[in-house]
Amino acid sequence: MKTICASMDTIREEEVVIQTIAPEWYESAVSSVSMLRLDMLHPVISGNKWYKLKENLAYALANNYRSVLTFGGAFSNHLIATATAAQQYGLDSIGIVRGIVPPEKFTKTLQDCKQYGMQIHCVSREDYDKKTDPVFLAQLAETFSNPFIIPEGGANKQGREGAEEIAKPIPDTCTHICTAVGTGTTFAGLRNALPVSKKLIGFVPMKKGNYLQIEIGKHLQTEKKTNWQLMDDWHFGGFGKCNVALIDFMNSFYKQNNIPLDVVYTAKMMYGVQQLLLSKYFPENAQILCIHTGGLQGNASVEHKLVYR
Fold first, then answer.
1. What is the per-residue pLDDT for 301?
2. Digit-coded pLDDT (tens) for 135-190
């Protein structure tokens, strides 16, 4: 059986940082606001991506797979995290990319994936939409010599189990937990792991993202199907979209807190949190913890507009 590369020891979950948000940012609307800095775990395999991958890669090793295959767009944090982690686990990796992108037009994300040994296979958007179709998956398995297939975003049993571990460093004193939501994998893992007394709020960065409530609900333990909420009010035009107001918010937040946000997920989450604070959504005694899910490489397209890199 293959063994985990020693360099994976650089991910030290026990040293994860919880950073206090400057009181002037929330103007004493609540008791406290803090941030779980999962973005600091690793320069590439950061945030919730590591937690969603760790059990998947462990499963692949335990079952003697030689490679993993997964899905993502041309700017996917999940793809680059998979490429990096697979290489360090001694596994080959294949990335099925949404949309036909010629090699000379690869994004920096895809170029980095290749540098980490990932075989990039671009497919049409129509084919990409078949990413959960058993026939299509069987064809991919045959084409790429039977890899272990990880769904987009690590959205499977192993991904949810890994995400449950994000709850471990969260203090018992926290009353409200906020996180960005993509596939709902991290959210489901957190809801199952956290005491049901803690309110879990998910911020969805795409239009009409509340459809994820149904998918998330399928994976919740019976006793954990309450005290949670998804919000899709602050998508800024849709997934991956932004405007001047969001960029200004990211710069202002960094100047106040010295925390870099990513334009796809955490910036929209923290913007939403601030709007909820202004609207008195939270009780005055609330102790809010926001989860930084990493993905700072997603800022590549706007980095020239940011006061940080």
1. 87
2. 999 999 999 999 999 999 999 999 999 999 999 999 999 999 999 999 999 999 99
Give pLDDT, residue 10. 57
In this predicted structure, the answer to whether residue 213 has a pLDDT above a threshold of 70 is yes
If you write DSSP's letter for every residue of 263-302 in order, what string do you get? Answer: TTTHHHHHHHHHHHHHTT-S-TT-EEEEEE---GGGGTTT
**Residue-averaged pLDDT of the chain:** 94
Tell me which DSSP letter residue 226 carries.
S
DSSP per-residue string spanning 120-142: EEEE-HHHHTTTT-HHHHHHHHH
- Among the listed residues 132, 117, 48, 111, the one whose alpha carbon sits nearest the alpha carbon of residue 84: 117
230: tokens are 């998804």
Residue type, 178: C
Sheet holding 228-231, edge to edge: 18-20, 32-37, 287-292, 176-180, 199-203, 228-231
- Angle 81-111-247 from CA coordinates, rounded to 5°: 70
Sign of CA dihedral 191, 194, 200, 206: negative
**Helix (H/G/I), strand (E/B), else coil: 160:** helix
Structure tokens at 153: 């975003």
pLDDT attached to residue 128 = 97
248-273: string of b/e by CB count within 10 Å (b at 16+)?
ebbeebeeebebbbbbbbbbbbbbbb
What pTM does this model have?
Answer: 0.92
- What are the structure tokens assigned to 144, written together? 């790429």
- In the chain, the amino acid numbered 48 is N
Contact criterion met (CB below 8 Å) for 69 and 151: no
Residue 218 pLDDT > 80? yes
Predicted local distance difference test score (pLDDT) of residue 49: 95
Q: Which residues are CB-contacts of 119 (< 8 A; sequence separation ≥ 6)? A: 92, 93, 94, 95, 144
